[in-house]
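Hey team,

Filing this mostly as a record. A colleague (T.K.) asked me to run one chain through the structure pipeline before their review meeting, and I want the input and output archived in the tracker in case anyone asks later how it was produced. No errors, nothing strange. Just documentation.

Input sequence:
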Amino acid sequence: MLYQKTRGNEVLCNLCSHRCRIKDSKRGICGVRENRQGVLYSLVYRKLISRAVDPIEKKPFFHFLPGSRSLSIATVGCNFRCRHCQNSDIAQMPHDLHQILGEDISPEEIIRECRTRQCRSISYTYTEPTIFFEYAYDIAKPAHEVGIRNVFVSNGYMTGEAIEVIAPYLDAVNIDLKGLDPFYKKICNARMEPVIETIRRMHELKIWVEVTTLVIPSLNDSDEELRQLAEILAGIDCSIPWHLSAFHPCYRLLDKPGTPAETIRRAREIGIQAGLKHVYVGNLSGEQGENTFCTRCHQLLVERTGYTIMQNRMIKGKCPDCGILIDGVWS
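Output structure:
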């Protein structure tokens, strides 16, 4: 899907914002889309590398069907080469190991498993769902038709064309907003602008959007950078939940320390000062910043510890104390 033949046997891939021009017998940046004599093929269709039942809070989603279970699936590959990739064993497999592994699982089997395991949604996650777009699409469309919700956990680098194709079947998305443009260029070999445009477009299409930023010491943790990120989100909609997660050294970014808890707390305050209504801390279990509070009367609504909901006081998405409707998808 989403490519065009250009000159000779070269093709232009219009799936993600890299828009790779791929010569015959070559692959795009993702490593899983190959040009064969002017026809672009997905190398990961029906090649499932990972599946698990997760709490929706793990994605993280705090304002989308809280307390529900989600069947999480992935293939190998990614269109980013982040130095701090947390799932590098599968996301970077085509580049690091020159392998494409996976179990042949049909879309129908995924939907059956989702129902059998009493999951209310399917999460396309762990790696970048954009790169297994055809597989995700063929699962999401029939899942949507039988009332199963579909959610992407994405780096947000898909094109407008891809968004338009998947939007009718996509209920929610959590997008990584990794930093400002210099961070994207240095750490991810990408650009920030397409990510912001994806957040904006998804929101306009009434897809529920939450955003996550992994805060890394000395790379994207300055007050000024965090303030700019918060202001960008607030400029789109101040009701977008922003998750600020603590970094732990991994993959090729082992020279940076873990993020101090105080940095994440400070980042949360910056987000609130910028006008965002719902700012959360991540990878810091037991923090007050994991909880949801009423935006009007400030009473505790949802209490969390890690991925576990300790109590949920909301009634049909409303605060039981003042009656205001809280932003989100609650049923």
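Quick notes for T.K.: The mean pLDDT is 97. The first helix runs from residue 88 to 91.
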